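User: Reviewer 2 asked us to show a designed sequence for the structure in our supplementary figure. I'm pasting the structure tokens here. Could you produce the per-position amino acids so we can include them in the response letter?
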């Protein structure tokens, strides 16, 4: 590594000093040895600066403290004091809008966090909060710098504190591009979105060696905390991709859908997709028979601008869909039951997924549209013992607490407590619509008839025929498509083909919605 002393001597005049500056800057930009760079690429990973170049608009990056060096001594640290101290910080633009970023440089101390390293991150986080602009972290670090002891651990505490302070104020996006172990994993967990890359990124609190020592279980790093594990099983990762280039391009896309901060609305764009475009295909996409499955994604594609949307947590809790899309050029959050997965029931994971998404939308002024086709909550001992009451209450709390425009549409089934929880009019939805295929009830007709007419069915000469008549009677009395509309529980029954136009007109009316909140420090949501 080149040192300042190795820069050409005799630099006593202005030109000499400038030459010295450029030499030092080049050294900081180049980083450690070419061998370290080759080792990084051999793992299928880009360098920190290459990642920043992919994330930000070309030529827009402004680096902060590129010449920072640690002051630690002992264990050989005093002989190794590279510029940047293993993290590159600064700001630039994404689609012309300011974004702050920090990127661990795994080539320097394995990206491990020391005191100077942490101070740089603290500074850029403070700048992002003060400027009211999104913060993106490109994570590729080996945890705390052991040689610096507790000072390194305290650095993580400062990051966690700022993550919490920024929560709901500016969008925070964590991009996992390498290992993230131990306490370091809690920073991404505190942010709004987590991206991961398959095979090269892992997150876990205790690694495979500790797991083996404590439990005797044999497992690989990817098996324990790889991208697919967190995208499908744990729900820690919102997005997972095969390579860094695709991953960072999707981060740019997500940023185009989010506001800079909680005092702004998401950016609107010109839309060439007609607002009054008819959705005639919806009549064939959704079967009238409530027991027949269909793909709710096709419904979403039919009603949003140009059929484009970004699904969040696509592979976790697949019985519910959470997505960001645009209606007439304006960003909207969509929550929809997915009849193709577990018939679209609500369970523990679906409730948590949707609750978190509702909170994010509400924090960043994103209107919410809910598409209902829900037969209820998933029954079972595992669900009850796992706390479905507590977890389901998270979704209920999130909806009730949300002040952004909220519109719900009942496509088919909407039964029991799940109907109430999925943003019904009774918990504060601004507008509720239903298709003519809707069935809003306490439970399905078969179950209801079995309870209400139990004695008549048991005493009948032909119990099955009696059951059929009672089911038909219950449906005609309490489950016909206009029952809820007649009682003011939905605002209108609409032609499915008019769904897009109805939503766009309703969202336009609600753009100026203002909600007065009660004076309180904060609520106490179910955990």
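Assistant: Here is a per-position design you can include in the supplement:
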């Amino acid at each position: 590594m080149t040192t300042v002393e190795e820069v050409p001597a005799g630099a006593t005049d202005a030109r000499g000093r400038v030459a010295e500056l450029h030499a030092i800057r080049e050294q900081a930009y180049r980083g450690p040895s070419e061998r370290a760079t080759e080792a990084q690429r051999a793992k299928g990973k880009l360098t920190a600066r290459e990642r920043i170049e992919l994330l930000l608009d070309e030529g827009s990056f402004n680096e902060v403290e590129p010449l920072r060096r640690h002051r630690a001594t002992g264990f050989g640290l005093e002989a190794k004091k590279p510029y940047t101290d293993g993290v590159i910080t600064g700001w630039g633009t994404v689609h012309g809008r300011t974004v702050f970023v920090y990127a661990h440089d795994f080539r320097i101390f394995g990206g491990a966090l020391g005191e100077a390293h942490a101070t740089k991150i603290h500074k850029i986080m403070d700048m992002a909060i003060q400027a009211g602009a999104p913060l993106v972290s490109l994570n590729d670090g080996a945890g705390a710098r052991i040689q610096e002891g507790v000072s390194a651990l305290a650095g993580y505490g400062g990051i966690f504190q700022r993550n919490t302070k920024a929560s709901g104020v500016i969008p925070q996006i964590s991009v996992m591009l390498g290992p993230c172990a131990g306490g370091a994993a809690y920073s991404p967990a505190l942010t709004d979105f987590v991206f991961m890359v398959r095979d090269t990124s892992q997150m876990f609190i205790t690694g495979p060696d500790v797991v083996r020592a404590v439990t005797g279980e044999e497992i690989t790093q990817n098996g324990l905390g790889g991208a697919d594990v967190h995208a499908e099983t744990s729900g820690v990762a919102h997005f997972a991709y095969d390579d860094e280039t695709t991953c960072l391009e999707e981060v740019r896309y997500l940023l185009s859908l989010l506001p800079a901060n909680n005092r702004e609305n998401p950016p609107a764009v010109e839309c060439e997709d007609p607002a009054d475009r008819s959705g005639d295909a919806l009549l064939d996409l959704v079967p009238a028979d409530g027991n027949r499955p269909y793909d709710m994604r096709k419904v979403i594609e039919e009603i949003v601008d140009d059929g484009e949307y970004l699904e969040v947590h696509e592979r976790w809790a697949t019985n519910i869909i959470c997505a960001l899309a645009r209606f007439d050029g304006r960003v909207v959050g969509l929550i929809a039951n997915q009849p193709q997965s577990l018939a679209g029931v609500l369970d523990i994971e679906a409730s948590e997924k949707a609750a978190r998404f509702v909170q994010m939308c509400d924090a960043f002024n994103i209107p919410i549209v809910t598409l209902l086709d829900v037969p209820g909550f998933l029954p079972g001992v595992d669900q009850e013992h796992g706390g479905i009451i507590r977890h389901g209450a998270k979704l209920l709390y999130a909806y009730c607490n949300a002040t952004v425009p909220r519109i719900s549409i009942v496509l088919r089934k909407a039964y029991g407590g799940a109907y109430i929880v999925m943003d019904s009019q009774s918990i504060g939805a601004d507008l509720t619509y239903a298709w003519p295929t809707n069935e809003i009830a306490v439970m399905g007709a078969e179950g209801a008839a079995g309870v209400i007419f139990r004695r008549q069915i048991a005493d009948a000469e032909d119990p099955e025929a009696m059951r059929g008549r009672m089911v038909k009677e219950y449906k005609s009395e309490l489950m016909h498509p206009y029952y809820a509309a007649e009682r003011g529980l939905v605002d209108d029954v609409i032609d499915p083909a008019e769904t897009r136009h109805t939503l766009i007109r309703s969202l336009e009316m609600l753009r100026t919605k203002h909600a007065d909140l009660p004076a309180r420090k904060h609520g106490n949501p179910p955990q």
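For the response letter, you might also mention the following. Residues 1-7 have pLDDT under 50 and may be disordered. The CA atoms of residues 287 and 294 lie 7 Å apart.
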